[in-house]
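Shipment paperwork, digital attachment
Item: protein structure file
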Amino acid sequence: MPKTAKSKSFYKRDILPAPESLVEGGKINFGTFNAPFRNVNPLDAARVFGFPLPRFLKNMRLKEWEAFQLGNDDFFILAVIYNQKVGTLVQFILCDKKKNRMTKYEKKVPSWRTRVPSSLGHTRARYVSDNFRLDIHNRLDRGRIFIDVAIDGDRELPPLYGHFEAFHEAGSARPLVVSLPFASNRGMYSHKCLMPMEGVLFTGGQRIDFARRSSFAIVDDHKGYYPYILQYDWVTGAGFTAKGLTGFNLTDNQVTDRERYNENCLWLGKELHLLPPVAFSRPNGVHDRWSVKDEYGMVDITFTPVFDNPLKMNLVAIRTDYHGPFGHYDGVIRTSKGGKISVKGLYGMGEKKYFRG
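Attachment content:
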């Protein structure tokens, strides 16, 4: 069982050896782990809601997505296939930071039209139609993830084509792999990693090159048996600082015992630093500055939204109230070793999410 230690200025969360599978003998392995799972098998968990359910009903309650944040000094990209089983949202969003412009490509399709795989080993997450293709080829067995996008234009949006290669290899990046409980045998899994990236994007008559020395990718492979009413706050950001490639992930969600179980971290080059639970505040609303802090004095940052990416739906039994803005950060994050990292100028995105269904 992972342990934590708490004092005025010290936080520690154990990193455990990764088992072969997320679920073994019907039980979910909970904790923070030192390597990816070879088999991400949440449907093998027994009595996730306290009583037996057939596999297809468990699958209907399992939220799954594979998402990427990609960027360099001038651009920030979100690419995501999000399957919430009542439907799937596919997005490719390009933020031009210098021109202060956001371009959003989006499809809302039935769940069966997309694929979210069971691991990152040698698998594909994809959505393909006549005019929109997002194809993610996971090759952790080779230390790579490939992302291809091809979208036809219309009267409002230019055509867009791109190829990206992220370097998820020993010596280049260290992932955050967590399995976190909502109940005794029900929870969420996430594999997140900040890594170097290279690629090219063609859009609006423009060629945008992403060089490995100055570009990044963050992967979020995610599966969860969330409560019927799902709520969480989240921010992530990345870029290059005096410490090299730098990024972070901070979430306040419905996990039990957040001192012991959370997905908060700071990446510094090849290093991974675990962070304590955090709390979000938005005194002037979701469109104004967000504040994210902890109780150990390790996290004290602000997020200033520039573009919003809202989604609202109310269909009696199903309701969504979501904001996913893009913007920039200020403030500092401290490591358990006493290092003080400024996040001023880093760019990223946040989420304020409510989902009933």
